[in-house]
Specification:
Elements: E1 2-5, H1 12-28, H2 37-59, E2 61-69, E3 73-80, H3 96-109, H4 111-114, E4 118-125, E5 129-131, H5 157-164, E6 172-179, H6 192-201, E7 206-210, E8 222-226, E9 231-235, E10 239-249, E11 256-263, E12 269-277, E13 283-293, E14 298-306, E15 319-327, E16 331-337, H7 342-352, E17 357-363, H8 377-380, E18 387-390, H9 399-411, E19 415-418, E20 441-442, E21 460-461, E22 468-469, H10 485-490, E23 498-499, E24 503-504, E25 511-515, E26 521-528, E27 531-536, H11 542-546, H12 550-564, E28 573-578, E29 582-584, E30 589-596, E31 609-615, E32 627-634, E33 636-639, E34 642-647, E35 654-663, E36 669-679, H13 692-701, E37 708-710, H14 715-729, E38 731-738, H15 743-767
Parallel strand pairs: 3-4, 3-6, 6-7, 7-37, 9-15, 16-17, 16-18, 18-19, 19-27, 29-36
Antiparallel strand pairs: 1-2, 2-38, 4-5, 8-10, 10-13, 11-12, 11-14, 14-15, 20-24, 21-23, 22-25, 25-26, 26-27, 28-30, 30-34, 31-32, 31-35, 33-34, 35-36
């Protein structure tokens, strides 16, 4: 303590004079008239006390001292109550919820150690934040926690944001967050990284306690198949790729097999394709793709699954279900060409714009760049191609064996279109291959065009060759509907040459559709057993594009391809769709029936029956019927070509299928099916491992305020950090007191002086002293 004086008018000399004068009065002015000795000393003592009191008032004494002021504060504690807390904590049979309760108990036991000015504000969170009240340091028992962790989803940023804006009885000094870091609420309400930065700016430390097994423990092994689309659309025989991502944890440098199975009409899964991936890190996401050919028209169930590894605690996320919707009209086209040409490029692009066509281009370079003949046996062995387009290519490029394979598939129903060129037809030696018997034209004894030699023009018509329709046929109907056929073709630029054939075969089904200005045949169609063949003597229709006839160019080549595919007419039909094919229990969904009017423009039927069937799980061990009807539903018309049903969902998980039936225009029964799956899987259980990466990022962003990521067994270290932070926040303050600074002590001094004077006056009056 430090004492000080503040005399009146700031002058000790004046105070000294006053003190001398008062003492002089006390010493020399003595009342002796009629007083006893004791009475006289009583009055002298009272007068002395008055003098001392007056001197104190005049001197105004003061005192100052230092004091440690401990700050008040609130520590928010957030505990995860989502159902993922029921999973293993990585320590024996202890759950994450049990581990979380132990941590909270340790924090509650340390409340007195932190001091009386510090209180806890516990919260429980899943997708929402639940306050459990504030806990004073004097509390005898902790607040009641939820009996069970059963939240359906977890939000990290939202609860943290609510804590940052909440009102507490004392300032928020720290936030302790417990959980596994798995964000399962989608979309997230708030970005947790932004909240961590906000706490850092406010100098509020964010202490994260990760609950769950670490990445290097046995319980951390997990495979999860993610990112596979719920449904895929494809046309028959088109090749598709099913893409996804494998999240692999704890399985570094191990081969993982990913298989794709299709569930057949008998309900049994059949392996379609598989691949092997090898993670190189303990926590890695690896993308994959599995190819397959679209089967017949229908809706199919696909299983994409990763083969389980030893030590996986959760297997539900190893497999995901997708659905493949296969539409009719799809086709695979093999375009075989020699050196790339302008014509071949634009033809392929025009066909590829049709979603129902898949064009595989096979460019065969000249020798010695590519050895002739190439082997087509593997490419053509499974009969996946519906149409072959043969461009400007020498017959030696594929050899007799390749020509024979194409001929066999054409005879069985595939289409064949041959284009013109310097090495086409007889000039390329095709008159000596099995294809010679299939084509509708006669190549004759054409002059063979030698390789790497000047072009022999005797096999060709030189100069401009106009293309003139020789018959009225759908193949030649291009341009706007109802337009004059002759006028449309007359507007197109002439061809820049054409192949010279030996003639046109006189055979059933052979038809000349277009001729040149001199009457030479340019476009001839025919039949070869079950297949269709077309020979074109030109390869310069790309000129139509250059004159702006883009629509006519695309129409012509698409109609050529459809003719070879025997698909000039489209049948009526219907298709079922759902906005989601993986449905949770009692989750609503929308079912749509889309009507295809076909070539005959048949209006949508007024009555369409829709039934829901439950299918047997092919992997179930319990014997059950293959299918059970659940009920019948009513489709409501939506517009002229669609109907809609608002489906409320089902209560039981399993495999289901919609079946719609109606009667077509010719009395034919039409049916459409759509399978889907109802899953009883919480998104919480599909992410069995903590997201240590996210928790580490949050701690890093809050590092400037003291944020850190700790494990549950480091609670004592966390208490030490809080104590150290409390010590750093303790303030040393200097307090002072001076007589007369406050109203209270001024009144006390005044009353003391007044009381002394009253006592003197009373005693003097009583003792008869004037």
């Amino acid at each position: 303590m430090d004492w000080s004086f503040s005399p009146v008018f700031g002058s000790y000399s004046l105070v000294s004079l006053i003190a001398v004068g008062l003492l002089f009065v006390w010493v020399f002015v003595i009342d002796t008239h009629g007083l006893k000795r004791a009475q006289r000393w009583i009055l002298r003592l009272l007068r002395l006390m008055l003098i001392l009191a007056l001197l104190l008032v005049i001197l105004k004494p003061g005192v100052s001292w230092t004091k440690q002021r401990e700050p008040e504060g609130t520590i928010a504690v957030l505990m995860d109550k989502s159902s993922s807390m029921q999973l293993s904590a990585g320590e024996g049979n202890k759950s994450r919820w049990d581990q979380q309760i132990e941590v909270w108990s340790g924090l509650f036991a340390s409340r007195e150690q932190l001091g009386k000015q510090i209180r806890f504000a516990p919260f429980a969170y899943d997708s929402q934040l639940q306050s459990l009240g504030e806990v004073e340091s004097t509390a005898q028992s902790p607040p009641a926690l939820p009996a069970k962790a059963e939240g359906a989803s977890t939000d990290i940023g939202g609860p943290l944001s609510q804590v940052s804006s909440a009102s507490f009885s004392s300032p928020l000094m720290a936030v302790i967050w417990m959980g596994d870091g798995s964000q399962t609420l989608s979309p997230a309400k708030t970005d947790p990284q932004q909240i961590a930065k906000q706490f850092a700016r406010q100098d509020i430390p964010l202490y994260l306690i990760g609950i769950g097994p670490r990445g290097d423990s046995e319980q951390a092994r997990d495979l999860a198949v993610e990112g596979v689309p719920e449904q895929l659309d494809a046309y028959t025989k088109n090749q598709i790729y099913v893409r996804g991502m494998l999240k692999a944890r704890g399985v570094a440098n191990r081969d993982i097999t990913i298989a794709m199975k299709i569930v057949g009409k008998d309900g049994k899964p059949v392996l379609v394709e598989q691949t092997v991936v090898r993670p190189t890190k303990s926590d890695q996401a690896i993308s994959f793709q599995l190819p397959m050919l679209a089967p017949e028209v229908g809706s199919y169930e696909l299983w994409v699954e990763a083969k389980a590894v030893d030590g996986e605690s959760v297997l539900e996320n190893n497999r995901t279900t997708s659905y493949l919707n296969v539409r009719g009209g799809g086709a695979r086209v093999l375009y075989i060409e020699g050196e790339p040409r302008t014509e071949s490029k634009f033809i392929a692009n025009a066909l590829l714009e049709s979603p129902d066509m898949q064009v595989d281009r096979l460019w065969i370079a000249r020798e010695p760049v590519q050895k002739w003949p190439i082997d087509l046996s593997q490419r053509l062995s499974n009969g996946v191609y519906d149409l072959f387009i043969l461009g400007d290519l020498d017959s030696d490029a594929i050899g007799t064996a390749g020509s024979q394979l194409i001929a066999e598939q054409v005879l069985r129903g595939a289409g064949l279109v041959t284009l013109g060129g310097y090495h086409a037809y007889g000039a390329g030696g095709w008159n000596n291959t099995p294809l010679n018997d299939l084509l509708p034209i006669q190549m004759g004894a054409a002059i063979r065009q030698p390789r790497n030699a000047p072009i022999d023009l005797r096999n060709h018509y030189e100069g401009a060759v106009p293309m003139v329709p020789a018959a009225v046929d759908r193949l030649l109907q291009i341009g706007e509907p109802g337009s004059n056929l002759t006028e449309v073709w007359g507007e197109l630029k002439p061809l820049t040459g054409a192949n010279r054939w030996g003639g046109v075969k006189n055979a059933p089904g052979v038809k000349v559709l277009a001729i040149g200005g001199a009457g030479q045949p340019l476009m001839v169609t025919g039949i070869a057993a079950q297949g269709r063949v077309m020979s074109l003597a030109f390869d310069s229709t790309f000129q139509w594009l250059r004159q702006g006839k883009v629509k006519e160019f695309k129409q012509f080549w698409r109609q050529v391809a459809l003719w070879g595919l025997r698909r000039e007419a489209v049948e009526e039909g219907m298709q079922l769709t759902m906005n989601r094919r993986r449905v949770l229990l009692q989750q609503p969904a929308e079912v749509m029936m889309n009507w295809s009017a076909g070539s005959k423009e048949t209006p949508m039927p007024k009555e369409v029956s829709l039934r829901l069937w439950r299918l047997k799980d092919p992997l179930a061990e319990v014997q059950a019927p293959l299918e059970t009807q659940i009920g019948e539903y009513r489709l409501n018309p939506r517009d002229a070509t669609s109907m809609r049903l608002g489906f409320e969902g089902v209560k039981d998980p399993g495999r289901y299928e919609w079946r719609a039936k109606t009667v077509g225009s010719e009395g034919k029964e039409l049916e459409a099916r759509l399978p889907f799956v109802v899953i009883d899987q919480s998104v919480e259980s599909l992410q069995p491992l903590p997201d240590w990466q996210l928790m580490g990022q949050l701690a890093k962003l809050n590092e400037s305020a003291g944020g850190v990521l700790v494990s549950p067994d480091q609670t004592a270290d966390l208490i030490s950090r809080l104590l150290e932070r409390r010590r750093q926040a303790t303030e040393t303050v200097v307090e002072t007191f001076q007589l007369g600074d406050t109203t209270l002590d001024s009144w006390v001094a005044f009353l003391a002086i007044a009381a002394n004077l009253v006592m003197q006056w009373g005693l003097r009056k009583r003792w008869g002293v004037p």
